[in-house]
Amino acid sequence: MIGKIVKVTVDRPMGSYHPNHRDIYYPVNYGYIKGIMSPDGEEQDAYILGIDHPVDEFTGRVIAVIHRYDDIEEKWVVAPVGKTYSAEEIKAQVDFQEQYFNYEESTYDHIIIGSLRFSPYMHRHMYGRKRIYGRCD
What we know:
By secondary structure, the protein is mainly beta. It is built from 1 helix and 9 strands. The chain is globular.
């Protein structure tokens, strides 16, 4: 799915709060991709990066997938075509919600662990691109 162009329907626009957890503020647009079902039986959730105002829907490229170890869901990260972010930049923008989960994030170039501390320890080549695996200290 990384690299795929998708249309996200936004149900939690930038500047809104989680409907069930009023302490979670959304600094980015967040929604779902109609017709793509996730393991929790709901449509696939997605964070939208690179848009600095609330939107109702957005078409962009999947640039990362957040794999939660303690939940059955994955979250996709979508950005405008041609816009790139480092793993650290992605983590900084989604951690407002992902901080409550044990997760890793896969991008084209690497994987990071959902922790404030990250130390790379192993490299390997996949699909002709370098991937960095990390661990929490």
